[in-house]
Queue: 4 jobs
Job 1
Amino acid sequence: MKLIGPINSGDSTGGAGLSTANANTTTIVSGVIYGIYIKYNGSPPAGTTDVVISTTGTSPAPPSNTILTITDSATAAWYYPRHVVHDETGTAITYDGTRDVHQAVPIHDTVNVKIDQANDADSIDVWLLLED
């Protein structure tokens, strides 16, 4: 396991409850994401602040992929995102026809961290817990 970060979004701008900021990693992040820690900086409003962590789809990587979306929160926390697994036909695999099977998210791309609907000068720091 390795820990990548912090990846800082930069200071948000745009007005109270409307500010946004985002930043990309400067190098490709490669591995399987087992956990993501988000730390909020400043005083983002818990009732509106959103965070999106995604790959950028920078060539030659595939199109961007949203890894984690947190809405209306400003509480620092660990998250353990998992995505639905598909079979060879592209159909979601289920345990019993109703409960989807999930697995940790593999990536090989630059990563974007975004804070939205915050206040001016708010930001986030993000750490990625990866397995090579």
Note: The longest strand covers residues 29-41.
Job 2
Amino acid sequence: MARHRLLFSKTGRARYLSHLDLMRTIQRVFARAGVQVRHTEGFNPHAYVSVALPLSVGVGSDCELLDFELADNTPLADLPELLTRNMPAGIEILAAYEADTKLKDIAFLRVWGTLSYDGAEDVTERVSELSDFFAQESILVKKLTKKKTMTEVDIIPLIREINFSAEGTHGVKVEAVIRAQNPGMNPSLLIEALRQQRPELVPDFVVFSRVEVYNEAMEVFR
């Protein structure tokens, strides 16, 4: 059976939906829209749907990808409108198409973030300090593994590029291209690195968004 793919955005209040809540929502939306997707067999069937590289709660995205298989003849061209009208606010289906690539071939993510510093009169110095910090040859960060044990990871090999610029009076914008998987890097590790090594540079508030995904050759992945 042919694999299909949705390109969708997750912004606004929807960024606070967990991955499990998102998966439940999407399956309900397919049903509500009258679109049949293939399910497993047995006493507890579930839909064959898979989201690439699940987002952390609070992170938005303009380029989420979901693979699924249709069990009816709904035209793919109709799916963006059919599904979006049944989605909660903040989730929009941007495109539906045949999947001729494999999600495992996603190699890099482009992320944007806003680091907010309350009371800062001039963030120019922070831009310079952040740029210098992430220009190091190695930055070791302690993190918790899925098995709830502590490990240490060097994040510099996982960062292809990173740039900082002032954003208004109190903000610093960061744009980075980071490894997506095998191994991948959560952008929150950028802040964790500061917390562990340069706590005076930790922002009072931070928001990250995923804006594009690429293959190994840095070509947009769809």
Note: The chain has a mean pLDDT of 95.
Job 3
Amino acid sequence: MPAPLTAGCLCGAVRFEVTEAPTVAYYCHCTRCQRRTGTAAAPGARVPPGAVRVLSGEDAIRRYVPEEGLPKAFCGACGSALWAETRDDGEVAAVRLGAFDEDPGIRPSYRQFTAYAAPWEPIPDDGLPRHPGRAP
């Protein structure tokens, strides 16, 4: 990855960059992701610790910390999902693929929490491995 990947929210209040290549991408079908995004699955890309740097809009970033699962960061102005953070140190763990400005160069390679898949949108027969819970 020769240059940082740039990303941001819908309204432009939050801008950030990913300075190291994402390690893996996936689709999450859990009910929390469904409700958070309004979609059947949320595509994300795991990133190395310390790889995300906020360029502008730090004051617009809000967080939702569920009882289970990872804290979720979003733009307080437009509501765009940005990333998930680790519980122990708040490091960015996974960036939402839709936040990237351009092709991040990685494709989802598995589906997790398929036991909770939305009944109104069947999981496509795309050959990706399916995990009923969190992927190993």
Note: The chain has a mean pLDDT of 95.
Job 4
Amino acid sequence: MGYKIVVADDEPIIRMDICEMLKLAGYDVVGQASNGLEVIEKCKLYKPDLAILDIKMPNLDGLKATKIIMEENLSSAVIILSAYSGEEFIERAKEAGAIGYVVKPITEMGLLAEVGVTITRGIEIRKMKEEIQKVKEEMEKRKLLERAKGVLMSKYNYSENDAYSKIRKLSMDKRCPIQEIAEKILNGNIMVHK
């Protein structure tokens, strides 16, 4: 299995029990924390597949810590542990970015089922975010190229095809990425001859 997990609970016995259940199930518990600030530091250090946080912890509660962990991509997923099963607590956990929610007292079967599902969903979400980021980067490169083509078209009366060919040729001649040439054209840092 080999999935990395960080566990945070201010109750040492509960934290120890959770870690033991996870280790016996084949998970790699890479870090433990007793408060919200510690768990953020452990997540920065280990970049786990999953962080399991108690909702009530000193220094920084589990919901605020979850929000930071998810916004900063410090873990693929978070499960909140809580003694509260009310809908408002579940909603607050979802708003903070948690994917899973386990109500105390924790059972091994309940915890492991939620961990398995949450890790899978977290990995899927991370992959989607990575794909979205790649698409955004490609769009930015495309916009840059279009703007550079526009400069060549207006400045030298190139057709769109000629402008693209010129940028591509400069890229090959100078052995650098096409977007770098586009940036240089836009910044006026490259000589272009008709």
Note: The longest helix spans residues 108-156.
